[in-house]
Design a protein that fits this description.
With 541 residues, the protein is mainly alpha-helical. It contains 23 helices and no strands. It folds into two domains: 432 residues, Growth Hormone, Chain: A, CATH 1.20.1250.20; 50 residues. The structure holds 1,2,3,4,5,6-hexahydroxy-cyclohexane. 1,2,3,4,5,6-hexahydroxy-cyclohexane binds next to α7 and α15. It is found in: Membrane. This is MFS permease.
């Protein structure tokens, strides 16, 4: 895996003011000229770039969030029958599977053809995937559309943060991680609003087709914006085009067409970094021995104790972010609220997306003050509590797990009417409210901690293994996301909703113990200090 492989990873220098450093390389380099450039106000150009990155997070969020309302609105439109739990699970998880499969390839394309090219290809995939879903008439066609969307999400979630990190001044790179998560949650909220509006006001036949098809619009906008943007200076230098790279740096710094010593210094620094990186790769290849021979950076990652520890922590956090079951709500909350008999399941499930977005915003403000380890240790118990309360609520509800009840809003409304018109039904209202409030508690505590902290993975790894380590951790995230998407509905059928939620609570409890045991506090530390914590052990005091 090369330096550009991992999402949220970039190349160059460490910025002490940027606790969310997106995985930038050479810690030792703090050149004056670069520092000067970094402290400047963002120009219009940089703002456009940030917006472009935002669209990508938005698409990631929209396309993963929209499936919740889509699944309850499809009815018999695919293959002339109701969707089974297995259909729903495959339609949902095919996206994460393809995101997992595609991201390593996109790093090679990004290195060969440039970052911009990957963004454009991803946009094309977003558009094709959206169109295919919108016109699909069978389950396999819908799955094919979701796979194409997955490939787009995988490529975009990898390359856009990289693009911005390589172009923007260092002070902006640092905030990228959280801004990206914020845009993802914004996209999910937008998907839920669109899902609710279309399932309520559009016709039954076409509403869900618009939901999935609308994802093409931001992709088209992003494609048009990206076509106007330059390649990154770092890629241009690597491709032997330093003059073009200099022009881009001048544009970013707002000194286009004038002599600018800062731009020269930055280009020199990039050239140095590119050389250092190549040298490092040669050394790694030469020193590898035994089973790791020829594996280069993998040898370095797996044979050195502190790198292994960093990898264990990063994978633990990413795995936990998904295995705690959050995305089962993101993907299936409308289905859950539908079988609980809520009159408008898509509107009710909007609460999940809004809570997630609002508390991600709160996390932005709190996380540096409280610290990553501490915010996790404070929030995970509340996640477990929310899950257990929801499980208790579910055990007092008589659910209607039949596909007809799940897929038909009218049916769901009928169920709700019946349940509220009888004494039996009135007794059911209270547990339904308990489930809803518990889910909000769970989502809020997730958004404060686990929704964000794992993406700060790159600060655990030293430069030499940063991209490889972050890449593996990101793959862990998609793999666990896939597993949860595929197993949630079958688990609900096999174990009951209560026990499924108890299972996620157990995952949270085990995760809490592991975080407490092996994840040291890195907030407020420079990248050198953070990675040094793992030199001789887990660094937990
Ligand atoms: O950080 C994000 C965010 O928490 C999203 O809401 C979730 O759907 C993603 O899986 C996660 O990676």
């Amino acid at each position: 895996m090369d330096s550009s492989q991992a999402p949220l990873i970039s190349n160059s220098r460490h910025d002490d003011d940027a606790p969310y450093d997106a995985g930038l390389g050479d810690e030792s380099a703090s050149r004056d000229a670069v520092g000067k450039a970094s402290s400047e106000q963002p120009g219009l150009f940089v703002l456009i770039l940030t917006f472009a990155a935002g669209i990508s997070g938005l698409l990631f969020g929209y396309d993963t969030g929209v499936i919740s309302a889509t699944l309850v609105s499809i009815g018999k439109a695919l293959s002339d029958r109701d969707l089974t739990s297995m259909d729903k699970s495959i339609i949902t998880s095919s996206t994460s599977l393809f995101a997992l499969l595609i991201s390593p390839f996109s790093s090679h394309i990004a290195d060969r053809l440039g970052r911009k090219r990957v963004i454009l290809y991803a946009d094309v995939l977003f558009i094709v995937g959206a169109a295919l879903q919108a016109v699909s008439s069978t389950v396999p066609l819908m799955v094919a559309g979701r796979c194409i969307i997955g490939a787009a999400v995988g490529a975009a979630s990898f390359v856009v943060p990289l693009y911005i990190a390589e172009v923007a001044p260092s002070s902006y790179r640092g905030r990228l991680v959280t801004i990206n998560v914020l845009f993802i949650t914004l996209g999910q909220m937008a998907a839920y609003i669109v899902g609710w509006a279309l399932s309520t006001y559009a016709s039954r036949e076409t509403g869900w087709r618009w939901m999935v098809g609308l994802g093409a619009l931001p992709a088209g906008l992003q494609g048009a914006l990206v076509a106007l943007m330059p390649e990154t200076p770092r890629w241009l230098v690597k491709a032997g085009r330093p003059d073009e790279a200099r022009r881009v740096v001048q544009k970013v710094n707002g000194v286009q067409g004038r002599f600018d010593g800062t731009a020269d210094a930055i280009i020199k620094e990039i050239e140095m970094e590119v050389r250092e990186e190549e040298e490092l790769r040669r050394l790694q290849a030469r020193h590898a021995s035994g089973p790791w021979k020829g594996l280069g950076v993998w040898h370095e990652l797996l044979s050195v104790g502190k790198h292994r520890r960093a990898l264990a922590i990063a994978c633990l956090l990413q795995g936990l972010q998904q295995l705690c079951g959050f995305n089962s709500l993101m993907y299936f909350s409308a289905t859950i609220f539908s079988i609980m008999g809520f009159e408008s399941p898509t509107l009710t499930s909007l609460i999940v997306a809004i809570t997630n977005f609002v508390f991600t915003l709160v996390a932005l403000v709190l996380i540096d003050r409280i610290g990553r380890r501490r915010i996790l240790l404070y929030s995970i118990p509340f996640m477990a509590l929310g899950l257990l309360l929801a499980a208790a609520g579910f055990s007092h509800l008589s659910l209607e797990p039949s596909p007809a009840a799940q897929d038909d809003d009218d049916n769901a409304a009928a169920t709700a009417t019946t349940s509220t018109s009888t004494t039996e039904g009135e007794r059911e209202t209270r547990p339904a409210v308990v489930v809803l409030v518990s889910i909000m508690l769970y989502v809020a505590s997730y958004a404060l901690g686990l929704g964000n902290v794992p993406w700060m993975q790159s600060e655990l790894f030293p430069l030499s293994v940063r991209s490889a380590g972050s890449g593996v951790a990101t793959a862990t995230n998609w793999a666990a996301n896939f597993a949860v998407g595929l197993t949630f509905l079958p688990l609900m059928d096999a174990l009951s909703p209560s026990w499924t939620f108890v299972l996620y609570a157990i995952v949270c409890a085990v995760g809490y113990g592991l975080v407490w045991r092996i994840y040291p506090e890195t907030a407020g530390l420079s990248l050198e200090e953070a990675t040094a914590l793992l030199d001789n052990g887990w660094g937990v005091r």
